[in-house]
Amino acid sequence: MPGCSLQPVRAKLVFRTMKRFFVQSFGCRASQADGAGIDAALGAGGMTRVATEAEAELVVLNTCTVTAAADSDARQAIRRLQRENPNAKILVTGCYAQRAPEELARMDGVAWVVGNSHKAELADIVLGTGSEEYHGSVFASDIASARDFKATPVVTSYADRTRPTLKVQDGCGNKCSFCIIPSVRGRSRSAAPDSVIEQVRELAAHYAEVVLSGINLGRWGRDLPGNLRFIDLLRHILDETPTQRIRLSSIEPMDWSAELLSLMASEPRIAKHVHIPLQSGSDSVLKRMYRKYRIHHYASRIELANRLMPNAAIGADVMTGFPGESDFEFQETVRFIEEQPFTYLHVFTYSERPGTAAADYADSVPVAVRRERTAVLRALSDRKNLAFRQRMIGRRLSCVTLHENKALSTNYLPVELSTPREPNRIVDLEIGSLSTSCLREKSLLPVLSN
């Protein structure tokens, strides 16, 4: 049942005047997959997707709330939409909508707020096609009570990408002290194996590469009967679908088992790309974060990944300015990162999230110091990534073509093509040189001298 009701609206009456829609998603890969599902459900209900917000009569904003900046981005988008397309109905969904539905409902132009608890019913709410009548404009309830993975339509048409993301897991039970996500996504819930296989088969008929994602992807299967693990799902996908390439999104350190890394190393259809969240290179900070590993555990996973796959992409999420992070603890993080074979980092500045344990911690790090530390780590990431790209010159890399002049390598490097190619194909490319941000394919044309 809807959690609350503001500004009553009859969805069926509104739909009579709404035909054109646009969906914009913010945040992680799982959120992008949710947005694709929303898009598919609205299209299946008879609405027409349009290319820009300006053309739409309904705009769906699928929000993130992982940081204060993510919340601010969503509010700015709502204000801009209200200013530039005042006749459009705005529907806000996603993690911010789950965390603070009434706050969003009070904003001008917002017709509906649909939390994650009701996201799977979003199309029914808008179209009035569900088994129950939906009244009101706010739909959010306690997501902690959710037990099942809510299926979304099989998405076979992604309007703006050649590497679709398939969400196979939702929720998280880790309860890290800095993270609001468990309270807006609920406990870990897994998609049924048969459903995943069906969707991968459908996607494989249209796309060369499929990205598997989840809020805590490595926990897939733990809530299902049969003592299943994520590696079981991966093997089923490889055995039972014709997919050309599977790429794995972020997996927590404790779930990067030797078995999983060995399968990735030996299977050419799995992209050589390991993303393993770090958060801090200091054991004392990890302890305050309630992270379930220590630096020697993490380093052992990285060492094995690098030994099995010397040319693999190895990336990490790192946070700066966590409460109480001293200069010494930050330097521990810098030294640890310098010593590891990372090829890129996603660096985040700590942001207080009401409702998390860390929000009540003392010893807040000044914002200016947080930002300085973020700049240091981003510069270190740039240096490591440049060295990795330089090391790839002269090698042949398996790549997926993204559009006529761009491709993405198995080890997560953008490649500039020497001649246009058809998008959405797996090709082997010889790397000839390095531009500012890309590798360049070796030219197939003869070099003319004067």
Radius of gyration: 23 Å
SS-based class? alpha/beta
- Contiguous runs where pLDDT drops below 50 for at least 5 residues: 1-15, 445-450
The CATH class of the largest domain: Alpha Beta
Proportion of helical residues: 25-40%
Estimated share of beta-strand residues? 15-25%
Distance N to C terminus: 77 Å
Number of contiguous helices: 14
Full CATH superfamily name of the largest domain: tm_1862 like domain
What strand order characterises the main sheet? 2-1-3-4-5-6
Assembly type of the chains comes to single chain
Q: Determine the mean pLDDT.
A: 91
Shape: globular
Domain unit count = 3
How would you describe what is shown here?
With 450 residues, the chain is α/β, with parallel strands linked by helices. The chain folds into three domains: 11-143, Methylthiotransferase, N-terminal domain (Rossmann fold), CATH 3.40.50; 165-391, pyruvate-formate lyase- activating enzyme (Alpha-Beta Horseshoe); 396-441. It is built from 14 helices and 18 strands. The strands form four sheets. It has a six-stranded parallel sheet, with helices on both faces. It has a five-stranded mixed beta barrel with strand order 14-15-16-18-17. The relative contact order is 0.09. The model is unreliable at 1-15 and 445-450 (pLDDT under 50).
